[in-house]
Design brief:
Radius of gyration: 24 Å
Strand content: 5-15%
Distance between the termini: 38 Å
Number of helices: 14
């Protein structure tokens, strides 16, 4: 028998993550402390039987003459579309890279990756009944801008997407122009989310499982379009997401390198469950059991905070070749942010914007918990605070500094991104924080700045749409 439960084999979550498990029953304490969902210790019992014909080998064992490289496994699912075949050329590059090298036949071409939100039914004008494998043109005339504001409706997060490529017409191969070669992910989503243990009929992306997103273009769609948008929807709606399950943070990257932004999202995906628990706990009556729940929640928050600190330290070491990952830019600025920031790369900018915006929401959550601890004026409430927690770090004045860093970075992000919708959620977080501060007579100028930036973000998106509308497209894949 294979997979017989053993005393020291570890929980399924730690086994999937390939880390040491403490074997606490019924749920691993390491998983609980770090806000992960422990999958328990159940093992599937499988009976294997060898026959004379297969020389004692079975389906669970690979054949002796199997010869497949890692690269071949990752890119075996070539996309055949109307005579066009595209696979990612070696060496494979991270999905968050600005460009992707695609191979069609003997030739490889470097394409710029762009992602845009649109109403798919009205945006795609195809030459045939289906956009996949046929020529198409795009129009945003009937599309509204993406609204990331949380709906708090009992609806699962859903997304549909089409992947297109556009090549320059009659271009001399000796002088390729990158601007004419684009790989576009056009997508449509809702802004709701609700946690379900099993995939629903509406959740077609989840139903395929994480192994479906290991090759181009599935991996790029999942890593830089679906996952960040799904995580932000869960974060803003304060509802857990299935993406926190370990297989969804490991399997899609089995063949592709990860970036620091991918590692950041691995931590961020733990926060929606923390937010959901906070909403439940602060509504309970003050009892000794309630105090213990609050202390346990704060311990979980400290563990996640430590993971953020480790991530930031790793980013700083990675960028040690630069004088700094970001610096004060020598360009005109808008009041009240007179010192805009520049970054060593667009990706570094986006990951810092995400990091600071997430910390705003996270620190507001911890501040809410601390206020709930202070309300019952009991001498014993000080014991609720775990060792190492500094309440001063989560005060609104400190959170305001994070919001300022986000705003000082947004101009650089706006002028360097080919995915402007990726800035909508951080902008929403900052606007929400400044709106709360207005109740205390603070941050009025900052709120006006955010409104102005939102208009400039819309103008940039429209210019990008116009540029994309001028091209002819070949559809190579549909998702959802």
């Amino acid at each position: 028998m294979v997979g017989v439960p053993g005393k020291y084999k570890g929980c399924n979550t730690c086994r999937t993550r390939r880390v040491k498990c403490d074997n606490t029953r019924p749920f691993c304490k390491k998983c609980i402390d770090y806000g992960r969902e422990c999958a328990g210790y159940e093992r599937e019992t499988v009976f294997i039987v060898g026959t004379q014909n297969d020389r004692g080998r079975v389906g669970s064992h690979p054949p002796r003459n199997a010869q497949s490289s890692r690269a071949a496994q990752s890119e075996v699912s070539t996309q055949h579309t109307a005579g066009h075949s595209y696979i990612a050329a070696e060496p494979l590059r991270a999905a968050w890279e600005e460009n992707v090298s695609l191979q069609s036949g003997p030739k490889s071409q470097v394409m710029r990756i762009v992602a845009r939100y649109a109403d798919l039914d009205s945006a795609i004008e195809v030459d045939d009944m289906s956009p996949e494998g046929h020529g198409a043109s795009l129009s945003w005339a009937g599309s509204r801008a993406l609204d990331v504001a949380p709906t708090f409706r009992e609806e699962v997060f859903t997304m549909k997407s089409c992947c297109f490529v556009s090549l320059p017409e009659d271009t001399d191969d000796s002088t390729p122009t990158l601007d004419g070669r684009v790989c576009l992910f056009l997508y449509q989503q809702n802004s709701s989310t609700v946690y379900t243990k099993e995939p629903t009929l509406a959740d077609a992306i989840r139903e395929l499982g994480p192994a479906a997103y290991r090759a181009f273009p599935e991996h790029h769609f999942f890593a830089r379009v679906y996952r960040p948008n799904a995580v932000w929807a869960a974060l803003l709606n304060r509802q857990p997401t299935f993406l926190c399950n370990p297989e969804w943070t490991v399997v899609p990257w089995e063949h592709y390198p990860r970036t620091s932004l991918d590692f950041l999202l691995d931590i961020v995906v733990l926060l929606p469950s923390i937010f959901s628990r906070t909403d439940d706990i602060i509504q309970q009556n003050a009892t000794p059991e309630h105090q213990l729940e609050i202390k346990d929640l704060l311990v979980n928050c400290l563990n996640i905070e430590a993971q953020f600190d480790i991530w930031l330290s790793a980013v700083q070491q990675m960028t040690s070749t630069y004088s700094a990952p970001y610096w004060v830019a020598d360009r005109a600025a808008r009041i009240p942010f007179n010192e805009p920031l520049s970054f060593a790369s667009p990706l570094l900018c986006l990951m810092h914007v995400y990091y600071w915006a997430v910390l705003i929401a996270f620190h507001q959550c911890i501040y809410t918990i601390l206020k709930a601890v202070e309300e019952p004026e009991d001498e014993g409430t000080a014991d609720v605070l775990p060792l190492g927690l500094d309440p001063q770090r989560y005060q609104p004045a400190e959170t305001r500094k994070l919001a300022e860093l986000v705003c000082r970075s947004l101009d650089f992000a706006l002028h360097t991104t080919a995915q402007p919708d990726s800035l909508l959620a951080p902008v929403w977080v900052v606007r929400d924080f400044y709106s709360r501060m207005k109740f205390f007579g603070l941050c009025e100028l900052e709120g006006l700045w955010v409104d102005d930036f939102t208009e400039r973000l819309g103008d940039h998106s429209r210019r990008l749409n116009n540029w994309l509308e001028e091209k002819r497209w070949i559809g190579i894949r549909q998702f959802g």
